[in-house]
Design brief:
Largest sheet: 6 strands, mixed
Oligomer: single chain
CATH superfamily of the largest domain: Glutaredoxin
CATH topology of the largest domain: Glutaredoxin
Order of helices and strands: HEEEHEHEEHEEH
Number of helices: 5
Radius of gyration: 24 Å
Shape: elongated
């Protein structure tokens, strides 16, 4: 004669098995997921180190950087974006403490473009050291195509962008106008 297992055993054993499997899954994913880079690494105001790759953009924080800034919205798998990557890496490294050169993968972090006029990738958004949108000189604007965006209600200039790939020379010309050598 076979005895029926108590109801508690019938419920607890499968629940424990599921809990162990879920725990293993969570631990494995935590170990494999990269840590999200911060927008700004620690340092004093005069020696801020800005991460190249970012996962989100806080416009108020960008306005407080205190250095000229470009945020390149692109993707690690877009060919023109891949061609620009060495330029961004070089300038980010060279200009630490003088400028912020940042990149955000819009296919990986889709919510990051919500506040920006991104129509194609790559697209770069430029800010002066005081956080205002960069306005190029007529001379520079004749060499590099910029699009200016204004708030519809107030007509206040809110973004200056360049759509498409940009060369290191063009990026240097832009930042030279913003005071970075």
């Amino acid at each position: 004669m076979v005895k029926n297992k108590p109801l508690k055993v019938k419920i607890i054993v499968p629940a424990l098995i599921v809990a162990v499997i879920v725990g293993i899954f969570i631990m494995k994913n935590m170990q494999n997921s990269p840590t999200e880079p911060s927008i700004i690494d620690s340092g004093t105001d005069s020696e801020r180190n800005f991460s190249l790759k970012i996962t989100s953009v806080d416009l108020e924080e960008v306005r407080q950087y205190g250095v000229p800034t470009v945020i390149d919205f692109g993707s690690d798998s877009c060919i023109p974006c891949k061609q620009m990557a060495p330029v961004l890496e070089t300038l980010n490294s060279e200009w630490q403490g003088k400028a912020a050169v940042q990149f955000m993968d819009v296919w990986e972090y889709t919510e990051g473009v919500d506040k920006f006029p991104i129509q194609v990738i790559p697209t770069q958004v430029f800010f002066n050291a005081d956080g205002t949108p960069f306005v190029p000189s007529d001379s520079l604007a004749s060499k590099v195509q910029f699009d200016m965006y204004s708030d519809k209600a107030s007509n206040e200039h809110i973004f200056t962008v360049h759509q498409g790939g940009i060369t290191e020379e063009e990026m240097r010309q832009i930042f030279a106008e913003m005071g970075v050598e």
